[in-house]
C-alpha cells in the first residue's frame, strides 16, 4: 500500500539513503532539511521521483512542521534531523537541547495531534557511554557522557512515555558507527572511514589516533536505511529501543589493511596520540532488532568499504 512518510534530515547522510529506500518501496516521501549539515546534492536522485516532495525547513520549527501535517496524512515520521556533532554539543549545549530534544518532542506531539502513529527516532550508541559491558545490550543502564548523548537518551524517554500514555508507536534506533557514501569527511570529527577514504583517494597519508587496535561496530548506511524503512513500514513493530549494528568488531588496523590493498600507492600511516575520551572498544548486540523486525545487517564490512572507497573516483 502506498502511504506518505515524513523524513526529517532528509538531505543528510543517513536521511538521503533512507528516502531512496522508501521511494524504492513505492512509498511517498516528504523530505525536510534545513541544510545546516545536510547537502541538497544528496537528494539528486530522490528529487527526480514524482513521489518525493522536498521542503527546505527546520524540523524544530513547530509552525512549519504543523503546516506539513495539515497538508498530508503521514503514516509515519522518520526523525533524523539533529545536531550531529558530539564536540559541538559541548560547545553549544543550548542548541543541542533545542535540536536533539525539544524538536523531537515537538514532532512527537504533532504526531499525537494528527493521529500519525509511527515515530522512528535516530538515537545513538553514544547513550551507553563508556561504562556499559560489551556487547552493548538495550537492557544496559545508559550512561551518557556528552550533552549529545544525554539529549538523545532524554528524547528516547519522552517518546517511550508518549507510547505508554497515548499509544505512539515509538521506535528508537541506536546507531553504531555508520559508514558509506555521502558521509561528509570535512570535519576532524567526521566518521573515521569517510576521512580515510577521502585522504586515500587524494593520495594523502591517514592518521591513526592511538595504536589502531581500537575496535568499532561499523554498519553500512544501506543497512541502516533498511532498518529505518522497515521500522516505519512494518505492521508488527514493538515500542522500544534497538541497536542498529552488525555485532562484529573491526579494528582500525584491520581497516588499514583493506585500504592498503585498495590504494597501494598511499604513503605510510601516521600514528598519533590517542584522542581524549576515545572509547577503546564499541560493539553492539544486534539480537533485539533481529527478533523484532527480522532485520539483520547484511553488508559485509570488506565489501561495504570497497564500495565506499571505489565510489566517485
Ligand atoms: C562515534 C560517533 C559519536 C559517538 C560515539 C559513541 C561517529 C562519526 N561518531 O564516535 O557520535 O559519540 O561513536 O561511541 O560515528 N580516528 C582516527 N583517525 C581519524 C579519525 C578517527 O584514528 O582521522 C579514530 C578515533 O580516534 C576513534 C575511531 O577512529 O578511535 C573512530 O572514530 P570516529 O569515526 O570519530 O567515531 P567514534 O569515536 O567511535
The number of distinct β-strands equals: 13
**Which strand order does the major sheet show?**
3-2-1-4-5-6-11
Unreliable stretches, pLDDT < 50, 5 or more residues?
Answer: none
Secondary structure: helix percent: 25-40%
What's the CATH architecture name of the domain at 4-178 and 219-245 and 284-297? Answer: 3-Layer(aba) Sandwich
Question: In CATH terms, what is the fold-level topology of the domain at 4-178 and 219-245 and 284-297?
Answer: Rossmann fold
- Biggest sheet statistics: 7 strands, parallel
Give the names of the bound compounds.
uridine-diphosphate-N-acetylglucosamine
Walk me through what this model shows.
This protein has a domain at 4-178 and 219-245 and 284-297: 3-Layer(aba) Sandwich (Rossmann fold), CATH 3.40.50.720. It is built from ten helices and 13 strands. The protein has 313 residues and is an alpha/beta fold. The mean pLDDT is 96. Helix content is 38%, strand content 18%. The chain has a seven-stranded parallel sheet, with helices on both faces. Bound molecules: uridine-diphosphate-N-acetylglucosamine (UD1). The site of uridine-diphosphate-N-acetylglucosamine has 19 residues, from helix 6 and strand 8.
Amino acid at each position: 500500500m502506498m502511504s506518505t512518510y515524513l523524513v526529517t534530515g532528509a538531505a543528510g547522510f543517513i536521511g538521503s539513503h533512507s528516502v531512496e529506500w522508501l521511494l524504492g518501496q513505492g512509498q511517498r516521501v516528504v523530505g525536510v532539511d534545513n541544510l545546516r549539515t545536510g547537502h541538497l546534492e544528496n537528494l539528486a536522485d530522490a528529487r527526480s521521483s514524482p513521489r518525493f516532495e522536498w521542503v527546505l525547513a527546520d524540523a524544530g520549527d513547530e509552525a512549519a512542521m504543523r503546516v506539513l501535517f495539515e497538508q498530508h496524512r503521514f503514516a509515519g515520521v522518520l526523525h533524523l534531523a539533529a545536531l550531529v556533532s558530539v564536540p559541538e554539543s559541548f560547545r553549544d549545549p543550548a542548541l543541542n537541547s533545542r535540536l536533539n530534544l525539544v524538536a523531537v518532542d515537538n514532532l512527537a506531539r504533532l504526531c499525537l495531534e494528527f493521529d500519525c502513529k509511527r515515530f522512528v527516532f535516530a538515537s545513538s550508541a553514544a547513550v551507553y557511554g563508556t561504562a556499559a559491558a560489551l556487547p552493548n545490550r538495550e537492557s544496559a543502564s545508559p550512561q551518557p557522557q556528552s550533552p549529545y548523548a544525554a539529549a538523545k537518551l532524554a528524547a528516547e524517554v519522552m517518546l517511550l512515555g508518549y507510547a505508554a500514555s497515548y499509544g505512539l508507536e515509538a521506535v528508537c534506533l541506536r546507531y553504531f558507527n555508520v559508514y558509506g557514501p555521502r558521509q561528509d569527511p570535512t570535519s576532524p570529527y567526521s566518521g573515521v572511514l569517510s576521512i580515510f577514504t577521502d585522504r586515500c583517494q587524494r593520495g594523502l597519508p591517514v592518521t591513526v589516533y592511538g595504536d589502531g587496535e581500537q575496535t568499532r561496530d561499523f554498519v553500512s548506511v544501506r543497512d541502516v536505511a533498511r532498518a529505518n524503512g522497515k521500522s516505519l513500514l512494518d505492521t508488527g513493530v514493538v515500542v522500544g529501543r534497538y541497536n542498529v549494528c552488525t555485532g562484529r568488531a573491526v579494528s582500525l588496523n584491520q581497516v588499514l589493511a583493506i585500504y592498503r590493498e585498495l590504494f597501494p600507492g598511499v604513503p605510510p600511516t601516521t600514528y598519533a596520540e590517542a584522542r581524549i575520551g576515545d572509547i577503546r572498544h564499541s560493539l553492539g548486540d544486534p539480537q533485539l532488532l533481529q527478533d523484532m523486525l527480522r532485520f539483520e545487517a547484511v553488508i559485509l564490512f570488506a565489501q561495504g568499504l570497497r564500495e565506499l572507497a571505489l565510489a566517485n573516483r
